[in-house]
Structures are given as C-alpha cells and as structure tokens.
Design brief:
The structure is a homodimer. Chain A is of the alpha/beta class. Chain A is built from 15 helices and 16 strands.
C-alpha cells in the first residue's frame, strides 16, 4: 500500500470518527481521558523501553544534551502527563455551550452553539509528552486528531498512541479519534497537508522552519505562530522597581520560549535612573546586552546592536535594548519589529496605559505585568494547544473553546421568507 | 511601473491605513459612511455615465440579459445603495466590544476585546452595488479593504471607488482605507493573493469557479463557501401544511441563491399523504422534479434522479426528491451530499428536532423554518458580507463582528511569573 493510500485511509477514518464524536457525552470523553491516565501508569515499563530506543538512536546521531533532555521520558514525566490528562478531564466541556440566543421579529429563535471543528492535523517536534497533551485537548473538544511527531520520537509516540487508542476503545469511543502517523518520512506530512476534504485545520508546533514548511505546503487552514519578538516598554512614568522586576522576569525566567522579552524599550527621560541597575542585574544573570548608542553610554561592555537584532527572536540570554524618545517611538518600533505576539508597557500613567492597550496590534497586550503571562493556563483558559498570531479564528493562546467553532441553530414554527 | 509594483503599493498603503483605522472613533467612521451616501446621490449622473460604458461593452460582447440586469445601475439602485450605507452607519460599532473579563488568582485582570482584522482583500463578480456594500462593512469594522471586482463592471467600480475615497478624505480618514484595483487583468488578483505580509484575509464572492481560483492561488487565509446544497427533511410527524409551505418557499422564493433548497427528503411514512399535493404545487410553479424511484410512483412526469443530482447545486427551478426510511437515512444523506451550508427539518416531534439540530454539521440548522433564513440580516447580525462554510473563524453568515478578531488585554500591578 502506498504512503498516500495509508495517510488517506487515516484521514478518512478520522473523519468518520469525528462524526461519532459530535454526539458523545462529556462523561464518555472524560472516562476515556481518565483511562488514558491509568494506561500511562500501568504501562510505564513498556513506554520507557520504547523511549530508550529513541534515546539510543538520538545519542548515536549525536543529538545535543538539551534536545536529549526534551526527548527523555521517566517516571516523573509520565506522572505529570497522567496528571495533565486528569486536569483536562476536569475542565468543562466546551461543546454544546450556547454563546447567545435571541428572538427575531418574526418569532424565529436564533442561537449560537459551540461544536467541534472536526478533524485536526497536529504536527510537532521532539517532546513525546506533547503527543498526549495535544490529543487530550482535541478529544475533549470533540475533535478527531492525527498526530505527526518528530522522527526522533517515533517509538515513544507510537507506544503512547497505542495506549491512547486502547483507552478510547475501552470507553467505547472510536479508536480512530486519535491516530499517530506510524512513519518518520517527511513525505507523510506533505500528504497529510493535502487532505482538505477530510481535515479541517492544521496546528503545527515547533521551530520556525517546521512552521514555514507546513504553511507553504498546506491546502488546509493553518493556525500557528512563527515567532515571538516580544517587547517591554518602560515608560518615563514607570515605577522603576516594578519595571526592573517585570523586565528581569520577562527575559530571564525562561529565555527559550516564545513569550520571553527579546527587546527592552526605555523612555529617555528615565534611562539614567533605570538602566545602570537594570543592566547590571542582567549582566550578573549572564544576559548579553545588545544596545543602541544611548544604551551603550550606560554600559561600556555592552555590544552595539546590529540592525538584525531588532527583529530577532533570540530564545536565549540575549537582549536588545533601545532608548526611545517616548511612547510614540515605542509604538512605531513595536509596529515595525513586533510579531503580533505579546507586548507590555510599565507605567503609572492612565493615558499611556490606555493608548498602549488600544493601539498595539498583538494577541496579548499587558500593563504592568510580565510578557510571560501569554499562555492559555496563565490567562485562565484552562489549557493551551498553542498560540496563533494570524488573526483568523483565534488570535493568541488557544484553549478548548478555540478548538471548537459555532453553528447557528434556529427554532421556528413555520416561518417562511417573504 | 509593473503590475506587481502597483498592487504592492496598494497593499502597503492599505496596511498603513489599517493602522490608523484601529484608533478612529465610531463617529468618524459613521460620518464617512453618511458622506458616501450623499456622494452617491450627488454624483448620480456621473455614476450612470460610467455604468453606461460597462453596459455598452457588455452588450457588444453579447452578455445575457440576466447578467446585464445585475450590472445595471439606475436611480433606484443608487438610492438603495445609499440607504444601505445609512443602515451600516446606524449599526453598533463592533470594535472595542469587551466579550469577557475575569480576574486571575494572582490579581491579573484579563479581558478580551474586539479589534479589526486589518486588511481585507475582497474579490467578486458583476454587481457594482457589492463594491459599496462590502467596502462599508469592512470600514465599519475598522478594516482597510482592497476591492477587485469583475472586469465587466470596471468603469462603475472605479467611479464608485473614487466617491468612497473622497468621502473618506472629507471625514479625515485615510483615503487608502478603501481601494479599487484599477485594472481588469486577472494577474492582478493572483498578485493580490500573494501579499501575505500586508493582507490578513481574503473574502471571495461569486461562482464556484472564482472561489476555486482564489482558494488555489492564495497564500492568505480565505473565508468562503463553494456552494449551498441545502436540504429540507420532512419527517413522518411533520405538520404537512407547514412542511408544504416551508419546502415551497425554500425552493421557489428565490431559486438562484445559495440558501435555496436543492434536495427534499421525505419520510416514507408520510410520502403518500404529502408528496402528491406538494409535487403538484411545484409543477404548477414550473419546478422540474428529479425523483428517486419511490418519488416517481407519486408523479409520473418526474424525471428519474441521476447520481449527479444528489450533490448538485441547481440554482434554478429544479429539485431532487428522495423518499427515505427515516431520520437516520436523512442524516446519512445530508452527511454525504450536504455542503455544510443550511439544513432544515420539519417535524412536530421534540426528539427528532433535537437530534437533527445536534447532529447536522451545517453552519445553520433549522427546525420548522425555511432554509432561506441563512442570511446575516435575517438571523439578526444586522448585515452580511458573505457566508463561510469552512469552519475556521466564522462558520456561517458573517456580519460586522465576524470582520473583527479578539485580542487579550491584561491589567496587572507588577505580576511576574514564578
């Protein structure tokens, strides 16, 4: 059987499963999720054996220790995967929520109700725990999902997929609700991206290269973000101690993620009061500073920023710093170099805060808080499957509700159009 | 200047205009809309002269009288275009609506607020009034729009575009908020569809050929529907008089539109009581019936339905009719041949109504009402720019709110992530 025939068989099975999933109860979905959590615990040894195969291969290929770390499963990771499944089971069911209902002058009662999207293609890299996270969110929102993970995690992903499938069947849900593509060929991804008749949406998660590949080859709508070039603007009326804590947190707490700060913008009126201590704190934490000429006046050891530093997503302990004339220049800078992801202002002034909130074109805009809060869990969505920086469907972090769409339902008593 | 350079200059100007539009007040937008209405009235003679050029060319090329009719502007059409502008001005502004706000345990106040999508590319055929309708809805929702109409309406569209632009400028809004592409070359559409850096969404409106062309060539997300293959299922417990009126209305009131019924499904238990009178009424109205074998038993002159009739969008006085064993078969038929557009059931039974509403996968599902109500105005959205049958962003009719997206705004007082 050709690869194309095999992938098509999977997407068709997913479509059929999605039809059944439309009408299953919350109880049934939650039962499956809890069985999955139990399955992970019961079959721990088997999972770790398969994970060991991936690790052995990765070591042989000389994978870096950071990546090996992401690939590694152990008793603790498995326990936290099981807990995450329990948490998704405990979240409210988004399907069936009525988001509005109104009466028309002719007596028609019109409502909008959340329904599953249908079939989701989820394409990702390395971490095998993402397999379980993504599958559980898709299922809870009533969707069938086809998972294509990184080739380096294939053994781990396949055993996890098998356990998920078994749990679905024990809960009397269609096994094809969650399917792991059983091959490492990139061609499989390309074929999946062409199945527009069966697949409703593609969600990729990984580096910019993966996202570009998916976007370029997909005939199916893609929800994704390329990168997070996030700014904190420290206004001239900022509480400087607060600004220092927020900027430090935004850069240093977890520099490798998309909602970390990459450029700090500082009002020239407080640069002298703010920058020396702030820059020293960054330097002590090992952050490399790439500064505009004015910044360099406050820190002799800083590197001069190159033009390529302003649009850069460093994902590392590197920070571009620019002194600006005021809010206007900060807004222009963000408009030019921002990535529609996360932007923050630190200020005590109402008018500045309001203008920043209104004018900045990003999925999450914050006043006096760290950029690190752009995250479905942190914002109260309960969980997150990813962040979308294209504005269609769901701008920003995507939780369970964002994995649904809404249809109109209309209750009439014989109305016809005149 | 090459065509590509010219189109790019337009999309870049639109992007700049969109940035300004983000922060304009409702008053300013409504003022522009009212000035447009006045402009249409004041410059009637000029508009009709340009329209006459299009008509002369179309007649020379032997355009059918139905299409000529769509292309023709007169004093009455212009008045109704001006009224439509006044109506859009009277609609509430969707931008800035807070759709939710909540407090997190750490004190962060998180809100979701509607913002414009940005730049919309609107691609359509024939009717010049669509130029004004689409532009007004995009502007009211705070978006810049680039309009590419049919080549046959180029003179009409250009003069309308000029009037809209003048009104924008009188209202001190950027003239590039509404731009008509000043060429009939199809290559211009292809170039527009590649400007993913500047254009946020493409909305095509027209025949299936146009929609497929746009979908195949676009790097930008497309909101569209290919076709409406809408069904009415007459249940065995239907009120037969009501069923007859609904089916007749759904087929005959305006057969050329996407929400007209194309296939009628009839429960076998009431086929004998329902079909003879229903089919006679259709025949008297000039409707050609294409029936399944059982239907033919009730109407000797009907044509037998071919397999190609079940997925067909006739857009004409033609109706496929099938007698089914029950709700299950009706649901299967709709699942197989429906287009996710509009589906209706006529029944007096609560359980059947509920199951149909829940299980049918269409943007609008109705009980005891005509399919013709799938329309933004009829459902109470105030206006409509089109219908989307892909499930992303906005499933079904798209009004002003559907021309926006939502961002998160976060009010903190120094929160950092731990």
């Amino acid at each position: 059987m050709s690869l194309e025939t095999r992938i098509k068989a999977m997407t068709q099975a997913a479509k059929e499963a999605a039809r059944e999933l439309r009408r299953v109860s919350r109880d049934q979905k939650d039962k499956a999720l809890r069985l999955m959590a139990q399955g992970l615990m019961k079959r721990e040894q088997e999972i770790l054996r398969e994970n060991e195969k991936d690790l052995a291969q990765a070591k042989e290929q000389g994978m870096s220790s950071a990546l090996l770390d992401r690939l590694t499963l152990d008793a603790k990771t498995l326990r936290s995967m099981a807990e995450a499944l329990e948490e998704v089971a405990a979240l409210p069911d988004p399907v069936g929520e009525m988001t509005g209902m109104w009466k028309r002058p002719n007596g028609l009662a019109v409502g909008r109700v959340r329904i599953p999207l249908g079939v989701i293609g989820f394409i990702y890299e390395s971490r095998p725990n993402v397999t379980v996270d993504a599958a559980s969110l898709c299922l809870k929102a009533g969707n069938a999902v086809i998972l294509k993970g990184g080739s380096e995690a294939i053994h781990s992903n396949l055993i996890l997929g098998e356990i998920l499938k078994q749990s679905l069947q024990e809960a009397e849900l269609p096994g094809a609700s969650i399917q792991v593509i059983p091959t490492t060929e990139r061609e499989a991804t390309r074929i999946l991206l062409q199945q527009e008749e069966d697949v409703d949406v593609i969600i990729p998660r990984g580096g910019e290269g993966l996202i570009r590949f998916v976007t370029d080859h997909s005939r199916i709508p893609v929800l994704r973000h390329y990168k997070g070039v996030c700014h904190v603007y420290v206004d001239e009326f900022a509480d400087l101690a607060m600004a220092e804590d927020i900027c430090f947190n935004a850069k240093v707490q977890r520099p490798g993620v998309c909602n970390a700060m990459e450029t700090m913008l500082v009002h020239e009126g407080i640069a002298g009061a703010f920058l020396p201590a702030m820059l020293k704190r960054f330097r002590d934490a090992g952050v490399e500073i790439r500064g505009c000429p004015k910044t360099l006046e406050y820190m002799a050891v800083a590197k001069p920023a190159e033009p390529s530093d302003w649009p850069a997503e460093f994902l590392d302990l590197i920070l571009a710093v620019k002194v600006v004339k005021g809010l206007e220049e900060a807004l222009d800078h963000i408009e030019t170099y921002g990535s529609n992801h996360t932007e923050a202002i630190v200020t005590t002034r109402y008018d500045r805060a309001r203008r920043f909130l209104e004018e900045v074109n990003a999925s999450v805009v914050l006043v006096n808080a760290s950029t690190r809060f752009n995250d479905g869990n942190q914002l109260g969505l309960g969980a997150e499957i990813g962040i979308n920086t294209s504005k269609l469907h769901a701008f920003g972090p995507m939780g369970l509700a964002e994995l649904t769409t809404q249809k109109f339902i209309v209750y009439g008593n014989g109305q016809i159009r005149t």
